[in-house]
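Anyone? Bumping this.
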Amino acid sequence: MTDYEVVIGLEVHVQLATRSKIFSWSSAAFGAEPNTATDPVCLGLPGALPVLNQAVVDAAVRLGLAVGSKIRQRCRFARKHYFYPDLPKGFQISQFDEPICEGGTVRFRLRGEPREVRLVRIHLEEDAGKNIHADSSKSLVDLNRAGVPLCEIVSEPEVRSADEAAEYVRAIRTMVRYLGIGDGNMEEGSLRCDANVSLRPRGTTTLGTKTEIKNMNSFKNVRDAIEHEVKRQAAVLDGGGRIVQETRLWDPGRGVTQAMRSKEQAHDYRYFPEPDLPPVVVSDAALAALRSSLPELPEDRFVRYTGPLGLSQQDAGVLVAEREIAAYFDAVIAAGAPAKRAANWVINDVLARVGDARGLGAADLSVPPAALAELCRLVDDGTLSGKLAKDVFGRMWSERRTAADIVATEGLAQVSDGGELEDICRRIVAEHPAEAARFKESPKLMGFFVGQIMKATGGKGNPKTINEILRRLLA
Amino acid sequence: MTIDARGATAVAIADKVRAGTWLARDVVEHYLDRIARLDGALGCYLLVDADGARRRADAVDAVRKAGRDPGALAGVPLGIKDIFCTRGVETTCASAILRGFKPPYESTATARLAAAGGVMLGKLNMDEFAMGSSNENSSVKPVRNPWSVAHVPGGSSGGSAASVAASLCAGSIGTDTGGSIRQPAALCGVVGVKPTYGLVSRYGVIAFASSLDHPGPFGRTVEDAAALLEAMAGPDPLDATSIPQPVGAYREAARAGRTGATPLAGVRLGVPDEYFQAGMDPEVEAAVRAALDELARAGAKLVKVSLPNTKYAIATYYLICTAEASSNLARYDGVKYGHRAAGVSSLEDLYTKTRGEGFGAEPKRRIMLGAYVLRAGYYEAYYGKALRARRKLADDFSAAFAACDAIVTPTSPVPAFKFGERMGDPLQMYLADVLTVAPNLAGVPAVSQPCGFTKSGLPIGLQTIGPTLGEEICFRVASAYEARTDWHTRRPPEAS
């Protein structure tokens, strides 16, 4: 069995979340009744002409700037021809020899280790419609999706494993969501991924014959499909066979890739510059404005969280996964909460309660960042015990009240007064002489005494003070 | 109140309707009656929308009666080349593949004409998908030249030219991709205008070759054409290639050409040798030379100019137009609208049968040529080279316009030819465009107008080419010539 190096290049299609389509005015939103989000242009009616939606250009340029691409400040669209019922004009308006972005690097983490995958290009194009095979006798076409703007992100063949491929795609989704240019939902198809996979004996540099894997509509599919394809290719090569260059569809039900009929692949796309659209021009001023509109990017945030803020890689990973989580967390620490405590609250309590983490971007949160910071402060200054704080947070969330209000009205403030606690401790020790006598050989009994005292104080006793008093009394 | 279609110009009709002298409805009835009596022999119309025309005319009259201005083209009966999408009215490009297609939307050009009070009578015959120079490529019927029904009217806008010549409408619109307005205008003895690329929106104009298609007007006179252009032109947010420039004062330019003894004093008119080559009909050359003398008498200074790359124009044109056509015609696949083949066994079968049955010979020929031109690995050799040649041709015009204000040439090297005469030889047919394609490649405006007749009574056309957005100088020159001659007042024979 040869030791193979896996070579993967990825083509990721990202739907851009613009209001209208890339070349016409109908809605680009997902989920309308079939063929209602259409207009003469995206239906390919005779005489209809494309007009470029500027928001699409801005989105692609921002994505390019975020990954360090070179922005082509003058570029053209091209027509890519093939016949298919979901392609109403018989050609797709895409970019060919003049992509709007070239080069760039996607940075992400694979099991905590930093990884970089360089990009070949990012280009703009229109989505096709959808064929729906109703039954064996007929097919239906829904053109709502026709003309939805797409960014195609093409990587160099630098991805080395199925896991890395999945993390790369996830990083693109995170980036797209950070930039607010798309929702990156793989299940709804607003982020799609094709993988070019080949193997070569480790240590060699010539690329092996590749296959293209399609139809992977989740991160798990990406990983499973590539893993399967790597095994399949290795088995073919080990058996002395040759890899056929072909497109293979992932069948998630059966867990295999299957070759498409080769007839469907034999395309000469007859590209030529789209004559209906003048060249796209991105002025220096527009470029500068778009650059200054970029938010802090995920990897930069990760470095800040694990460096100056001292968070663990795991916590930082959770916090940067969505822009809204990170923004919420940043707001909590900006309101004065210590980073580690704030991270714990956000990860263990806030994220457990909010359904979609992106909901943290809402203006009307039941626990806004400043309220969480106040809760942290009450715990830090000893006013509230850690245990009670959990309950208080729950009530803040459900009752939309502040921590200070709950503590004051419910009398939940921690008892730290030495004198008061000492009296209670003395009484409890006196009530349990047998346990007090056994304490010396069995220090575990400290837990028993603390428990009894907490019960007596209604949970409000400061555990640190109680420990000190008990240790003295039982010595 | 006798309406005389043969005598009245479009602007005269509009003036009378605006003044309330004539009712738009009466004008329309008069023209509908003429179409009913005379078009059977000519074949100009593919569809007469009589009820719609009456409705539109009544609406114009109602506006006038309400004391509001019904517009610069109030009540002017118009013929519309069947390449313009008209909402709810069948639009086929004279192709079987679009039979039954009723657009759910209106082209910008026709919408603007209607907004100016123009009244569409119906849809005009043409070469299928605007591919042809004789109108013999209509899938429905040929158009006959009103001056001689044995002769072709030219193409592709043959119906647009012949209908104006025969007074079956007071003005019409067409499209010019390589001469498709000017050449039939010349062969039918009317005025035809190919404006600057982007001056008139292409939105709703069924595409043949997107970078070469120019919608434009036909009129009996220069001012009629200018009035139609004024209504059609202007920036359109629905066409990304439309020019963001205000519309020029074309009618005023036409009137200026009629003013004074030497209305062209100070105007330099370029005469390119390359447009007076062997193969030109001697009667055409004589008529055009005489027209040049007349223009000189109107005050113009004639200067020699050179357009040295003219010899590449036809090859360049056919590479670009076939490539774009093969792309633009890909959408006719039987899936969404128009013709769909029956009894198909697979998707591929649906495509090949639908397109095999739906397209005529000329679109098929151009689709195949265009697909060949664009195939992978040959782009640079053909399409890329054609784009470079196109730039050289545009540079020729820029250089020439440094030395002159407009260029005057024949429109067609020959007068109308007989049916069938050139159909056997596509290459010979393509050469009919030799004097008209270069302005399409360069995007500059050009006007064709009548400048005489052959001994056998066939019209001859004079072409005035202007620089980019130079419509006004073209109209001024054409109008000056028109004012000094009476070719435009002649009418073809009419069965009574």
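Late reply, but here is one note on the structure posted above: DSSP finds 15 helices and 17 strands in chain A.
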